[in-house]
């Protein structure tokens, strides 16, 4: 059962791991409505993050996950999917 949500800290770590982009989690949270490309993350990088989350949680994420434009939109979709499938 998923009892925790994916946080800005975790998203920041995944951005580093999957796309090689270093973003301070506080900056990511403060600019949560900014487009991913403003942090240097493109659609391939986001796809890598989606894949890592699917592996980590053993659950498929919606096909539109990699089309999210902002960190907040992405986390909202991921967390609602993970908690619904728990």
Shape estimate: globular
Counting H and I runs of at least 4 residues, what is the number of helices?
4
Strand segment count: 0
Distance between the termini: 5 Å
| Mean of residue pLDDT values | 92
Tell me the β content. Answer: under 5%
Order of helices and strands: HHHH
Task: Catalogue the unreliable spans.
Answer: none
**Secondary-structure-derived class:** mainly alpha
Radius of gyration: 12 Å
Q: Which bin fits the share of residues in helices?
A: 40-55%
Largest sheet: none
Describe the structure.
This protein is mostly helical. Helices cover 55% and strands 0% of the residues. The protein contains four helices and no strands. The chain has helices at 8-19, 25-30, 43-57, 71-84. α1 crosses α3 (43-57).
Briefly say what this structure is.
With 86 residues, this protein is mainly α. The protein has helices spanning 8-19, 25-30, 43-57, 71-84.
Element layout with pairings:
Layout: H1 8-19, H2 25-30, H3 43-57, H4 71-84
Helix pairs in contact: 1-3
Write out key terms for the chains shown.
mainly alpha; 86 residues; 55% helix
């Amino acid at each position: 059962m998923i009892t925790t949500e994916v946080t800005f800290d975790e998203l920041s770590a995944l951005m580093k791991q999957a796309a090689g982009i270093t973003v301070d989690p506080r900056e990511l949270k403060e600019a949560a409505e900014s487009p991913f490309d403003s942090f240097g993350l493109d659609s391939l990088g986001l796809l890598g993050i989606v894949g890592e989350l699917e592996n980590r949680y053993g659950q498929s994420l919606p096909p539109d996950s990699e089309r999210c434009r902002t960190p907040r939109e992405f986390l909202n979709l991921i967390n609602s999917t993970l908690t619904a499938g728990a």
